[in-house]
Design brief:
The structure holds two protein chains of two kinds. By secondary structure, chain A is mainly α. Chain A is built from 16 helices and four strands. By secondary structure, chain B is an alpha+beta fold. In chain B, 25% of the residues lie in helices and 16% in strands. Classes of the chains: A mainly alpha, B alpha+beta.
């Protein structure tokens, strides 16, 4: 049977009206305008990227302090600093999947900053079945790259297969601080002596150079993303234009929905749950993955509420509440439920995914997946309530 | 407006036909069926249009889809790695991830922004037939050129392409130009290849709707096999090696229909393109003279690198990607274009409708679908020939590629390169390259008035 789409459309309009899609006016109805919400979102995101840059610069000085005097104690300090340095960036991750400054490809800053998995043996020594091969990786192959510099790595990466995506960013730094996680449970055990000149490990100076270059790369990429959200930057100006408000709000909702359901839920948590591979988790070297996931969920919640740090400005919630208070209340409940569900997963993640489906860890993960999926769908409903259309289902990448 | 329907699809199904109005204007062509993939259709028409799962997956299937999506998107890394389920890249490879060549589940541009090859590979063989009836691999390089290697392992060589513009004109005198490619390989890193080397360039196609095509019963495909008709169009099946069943079966995937199933296609691409072994293809792709390649650490735990679970999941993922709905279904020009598509003879091979039979997922089973293919081989003439036989397919035969979703290629992948080696810059050039069995249809298009050509192109853009 052929279906008449014109007929379908007339039905859809009816359906939309029933759902309360009628409020297409610029104001949410309760005094909060779309423009104010979009502006507040952009201001918060700019603040979060600014903090992320500052965090990385602070981390850089801790890295330098560690490299000046590498001991187990200073290694512990710089590892703690790495964890701390990622907090604000994690809070920005709800702003993904709409080809914004973080995602637009090229240059694909997201892949350069935060991509995972990491090609460990491309960077440094690696071991298999207890046997360490100290001769692999850029660090140990001066003939491949005589000097480890930003330019040198870029040139090497210019060899066309885009290995930069698997050899730089936060997780490259994580690997250089923790090393391979070879046990079923727990972080990697890289010794501080890997960085001691004249110590037991080969190429400590080159390893230090790689670490420094990786950190510089993160600062540079984060800075570019931050600057694209500057109040005077063209992307930001366009994003806030009256004529573009519906599109910008669609982007915002799309990011929140897809990040919740497709990325954080399905890809980051769900794939590990399905595969049961213990190191199928983003912070596989430090074993601190659950810290990330909680920050991610908190960031999504804050974006919906229009909050960042001390600022509590006009939020998406104000628009949704004006259109459909029940839907808004429901979404708020779901956002909190996801955070609570992630918090309830017993750490470490690699332990939680093991076992059968009735184990407390797997039940907790399943609950988080269900909560994030429901949250993603609820963003779709909320967007529809203010007259927008977003695609919630699985993102392509 | 179209995409708003997507969100409310569930409600629409319930209320279809609720409006008593909508009688067609007199003389107007009736609207087309928007559901190109039957129940496995998505109404997403955005840049993410190829990346949607079909509906009504149960919890277990949804989990499999998630895992498969991750396997499809993630980069493989050098072994050994902490992520031991994702290590074993190469040692020689074309890409680190499925998604490199099938970006956003579509087709990557053949070249990246710096002009390096991206979504394309080169099959290699020398004269003769392998034990399985397929192409005879090159003794030095195997059956595929891998331009890249892990650190310390040189790639096979660097493929190059140059284009020469070849002017032509439509029947009304207006001009067009086709770019004719020529290929070469720079710097064979492991010595000269075998005598009589044949090179076939292939781009990675989009991976939508594969579950539907796999569910079309063999009988229905074979029913379209026929001897040359008055227009010189025939239809020939490819029979190819099924490595699991260890016998020759009907081929239906790939540019030459040289793969029988999504499972085998997937395992083949993993070992050939990424260098990841599986339980189906346990041997890596280093040939005996490749010393560094053979010495590299394997990611096998213990026998192969791609777990059976990951293999099943990523195949399921591709089988479960929905087909984008046809758009502008009541646009009169596009509808007239479809009539011309049939009149010109395009539809003799690009068949509008096929049917699926039994399938493991409800939305794939017993559907009426509009892929615009017959899944059969056709001689496309010397201009498109790669001169490299592939099982029953001759050097000038190609499988009719499905056209569904192609109207969204520009939106999803930001290019409109078409045909097996991406030489065509858009629909018109793709048609104008048709030769052999497609020559008559091509001439009908080339000689038609501009209004008819535009209508036909508008139809294709609506798919």
């Amino acid at each position: 049977m052929r279906v008449n789409v014109r007929k379908l459309l007339s039905c859809v309009v009816t359906a939309s009206a029933l759902l309360g899609c009628g409020s297409d006016d610029a104001n949410g109805g309760a005094g909060v305008s779309r423009g104010a919400v979009v502006k507040n979102y952009a201001a918060n995101l700019y603040a979060a990227y600014s903090d992320s840059v500052d965090d990385e610069i602070a981390f850089q000085s801790d890295v330098n302090a560690f490299l000046a005097a590498p001991t187990e104690k200073t290694l512990k300090t710089v590892r703690d600093s790495w964890l701390a340095s990622r907090e604000h960036y994690m809070l920005t991750e709800g702003a993904r999947f709409y080809d914004g400054p973080i995602d637009v490809d090229p240059p694909n800053h997201e892949a350069l900053i935060n991509s995972w998995p990491l090609d460990e043996a491309f960077i440094d020594y690696a071991s298999k079945d207890g046997v360490v091969n100290e001769d692999v990786g850029i660090v140990n192959m001066p003939d491949v790259l005589p000097e480890i510099t930003t330019e040198g790595l870029a040139q090497l990466n210019g060899s066309d297969d885009e290995p930069e995506n698997v050899s730089v960013g936060y997780h490259a730094v994580e690997f250089l601080l923790w090393g391979q996680a070879l046990n079923d449970v727990g972080p990697g055990q890289r010794p501080a002596t890997d960085y001691v000149i004249g110590g037991p490990s080969k190429n400590p100076d080159r390893r230090a150079d790689y670490l420094k270059v990786a950190v510089e790369g993160i600062i540079s990429d984060l800075t570019e993303v931050r600057d694209a959200w500057k109040p005077t930057a063209s992307y930001r100006v366009d994003f806030e234009k009256d004529a573009n408000l519906a599109e910008s709000l669609t982007h915002i909702f799309t990011g929140l929905a897809k990040f919740s359901k497709g990325e954080l839920g399905s890809q980051r948590i769900g794939a590990g749950y399905e595969s049961k591979h213990r190191h199928d988790q983003h912070d596989c070297f430090s074993s601190e993955t659950l810290v990330d996931y909680e920050r991610d969920a908190l960031g999504v919640q804050a974006m919906y509420l229009g909050k960042y740090g001390d600022n509590d400005g006009p939020g998406l919630d104000d628009l949704v509440k004006a259109a459909d208070p029940k839907l808004d209340a429901d979404l708020k409940k779901k956002l909190q439920a996801s955070i609570d569900a992630i918090k309830a997963i017993p750490a470490p993640f690699e332990d939680a995914i093991a076992g059968d489906d009735d184990s407390p860890g797997r039940k907790a993960i399943q609950a988080a997946l269900t909560a994030l999926s429901a949250q993603g769908d609820a963003f779709g409903a909320a967007a529809a309530a203010i007259g927008l259309t977003i695609q919630v289902d699985d993102p392509a990448e | 407006m179209m995409s708003r329907i997507g969100l409310l699809f569930g409600s629409i199904v319930a209320v279809v036909g609720c409006s008593g109005e909508g009688a067609s204007d007199s003389g107007a062509l009736p609207p087309a069926d928007p559901k190109s993939g039957g129940a496995a259709t998505t109404l997403d028409d955005t840049s993410q249009a190829y990346g949607n799962s079909i509906r009504k997956l149960d919890d277990e299937q949804a989990g499999q889809f998630s895992l498969g999506h991750s396997v499809f998107s993630r980069a493989w890394v050098t072994a050994p790695a902490t992520t031991d389920n994702l290590d074993g890249l190469g040692p020689l490879f074309n890409a680190r991830a499925c998604a490199t060549c099938h970006s956003k589940d579509g087709r990557s541009a053949p070249f990246n922004t710096s002009g390096a090859l991206l979504g394309m590979l080169f099959r290699l063989s020398i004269p003769g037939i392998a034990d399985n009836g397929g192409p005879n691999p090159d003794p030095v390089y195997g059956d595929q050129l891998r331009p890249f290697g892990i650190l310390g392992v040189p790639g096979d060589g660097t493929p190059r392409v140059t284009y020469e513009e070849q002017p032509g004109s439509y029947g009304d005198g207006s001009a067009f130009s086709l770019q004719r490619p020529s290929y070469s390989i720079d710097g064979w890193n492991y010595g000269e290849p075998g005598e009589g080397l044949m090179i076939s360039p292939r781009t990675g196609p989009s991976v939508i709707g594969l579950g539907l095509l796999e569910a079309v019963p063999e009988d229905e495909i074979l029913a379209y096999v026929h001897a040359p008709d008055a227009d010189g169009v025939s239809g020939v099946p490819n029979y190819v090696w099924d490595a699991e069943q260890q016998t020759a079966v009907l081929g239906r995937f790939g540019w030459k229909a040289n793969q029988p199933t999504t499972m085998q296609q997937t395992a083949g691409a993993f070992v050939g393109d990424i260098g990841i072994t599986s339980s189906l293809f346990r041997n890596g792709t280093c040939t005996p003279t490749m010393t560094a390649c053979n010495a590299a650490t394997s990611g096998a735990d213990p026998d192969f690198e791609l777990s059976d679970q990951a293999w099943r999941s990523v195949s399921f993922y591709m089988r479960s990607l929905a087909v984008p709905a046809r758009r502008d279904v009541d646009d009169q020009e596009a509808l007239r274009g479809e009539l011309l598509f049939a009149k010109f003879g395009c539809a003799s091979c690009h068949r509008e409708t096929l049917h699926t039979g039994a399938a493991d997922v409800d939305s794939l089973a017993n559907q009426t679908i509009h892929p615009y293919t017959d899944l059969l081989l056709h001689d496309m003439g010397p201009d498109l020939a790669d001169e490299r036989p592939d099982f029953q397919a001759s050097g000038s035969q190609w499988r009719t590629p499905p056209l569904w979703g192609l109207g969204l290629l520009q939106k999803v992948n930001q290019h409109s390169f078409m045909l097996h080696d991406a030489r065509a810059r858009g629909f018109a050039e793709a048609i104008l390259w048709h030769g052999g069995e497609g020559a008559k249809a091509r001439e009908n298009f080339r000689l038609a008035p501009a209004s008819e050509r535009n209508a036909l192109l508008k139809f294709l853009e609506s798919l």
